[in-house]
């Protein structure tokens, strides 16, 4: 699927008033000031990616969503991640929100199994995954995405996607956000957990 991309003039980079958690379609780029420091570097290192330029390229790339209800009634989201300067690593896929596991080969991290659904936040742990969302997002549920590696390294990633109001006193300050919890398997049976809060600028419609 090829997306038609139209970037609109949006000086404040916040979400338009009619943007809701029921339809996340749009173009986004990471706001590196509002997001946690080192959004991708440590995670990529634990995934076995030895490329010092790749974290910057991912952070600078544009994320495209086409979120829709299919003819069969299933909720789906087409995700395209352009990685600046790495055209062969740019990736796109259709994700069906049915919580069924699907295997694929990710162009950056290799063989993975993933699944996605819409879910109310009280079903989620830890609290980091369910906190900070707008009342509307809590009403409709977040998009809950899980991915695990099928390589000997053995890592897993859990994400929640939705809308946050970073300044609750200003209704116009709504932004699309992702909460990431990454877990790496270390030697000796130990585990390393990394949490990241990612905040995005809205660039326009898809």
Q: What fraction of residues sit in β-strands?
A: 35-45%
Q: Supply the number of helical segments.
A: 4
Which residues form runs of ≥5 with pLDDT under 50? 1-11
CATH architectural grouping: Beta Barrel
What CATH calls the topology is Lipocalin
Helix-and-strand structural type:
mainly beta
User: Radius of gyration, Cα only, in angstroms?
Assistant: 17 Å
Q: How is the largest sheet built, in terms of strand order?
A: 4-3-2-1-10-9-8-7-6-5
CATH class annotation: Mainly Beta
Q: How many DSSP-defined strands?
A: 10
Measured distance between first and last alpha carbons: 13 Å
Average pLDDT: 91
User: How many discrete structural domains?
Assistant: 1
CATH superfamily: Calycin beta-barrel core domain
Overall shape: globular
The helix/strand order is: EHHEEEEEHHEEEE
Largest sheet: 10 strands, antiparallel
Relative helix content: 10-25%
Secondary structure blueprint with pairings:
Layout: E1 26-30, H1 41-46, H2 54-60, E2 62-69, E3 75-81, E4 91-96, E5 102-106, E6 110-119, H3 127-130, H4 135-140, E7 142-149, E8 155-165, E9 174-185, E10 191-204
Antiparallel strand pairs: 1-2, 1-10, 2-3, 3-4, 5-6, 6-7, 7-8, 8-9, 9-10
């Amino acid at each position: 699927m090829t997306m038609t991309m139209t970037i609109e003039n949006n000086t404040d980079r916040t979400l338009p008033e009619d943007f809701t958690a029921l339809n996340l379609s749009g173009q986004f780029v990471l706001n590196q000031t509002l997001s946690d420091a080192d959004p991708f570097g440590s995670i990529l290192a634990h995934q076995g990616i030895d490329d010092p330029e790749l974290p910057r390229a991912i952070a600078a790339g544009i994320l495209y969503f086409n979120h829709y209800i299919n003819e069969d009634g299933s909720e789906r989201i087409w995700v395209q991640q352009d990685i600046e300067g790495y055209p062969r690593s740019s990736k796109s896929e259709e994700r069906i929100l049915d919580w069924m596991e699907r295997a694929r080969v990710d162009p950056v991290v290799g063989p993975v199994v993933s699944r996605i659904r819409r879910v109310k936040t009280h079903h989620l742990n830890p609290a980091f995954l369910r906190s900070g969302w707008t009342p509307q997002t809590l009403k409709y549920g977040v998009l809950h995405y899980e991915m695990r590696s099928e390589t000997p390294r053995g890592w897993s990633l859990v994400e929640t996607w939705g809308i946050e109001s970073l300044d609750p006193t200003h209704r116009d300050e709504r932004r699309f956000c992702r909460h990431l919890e990454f877990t790496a398997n270390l030697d000796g049976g130990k585990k390393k957990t990394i949490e990241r809060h990612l905040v995005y600028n809205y660039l326009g419609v898809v």
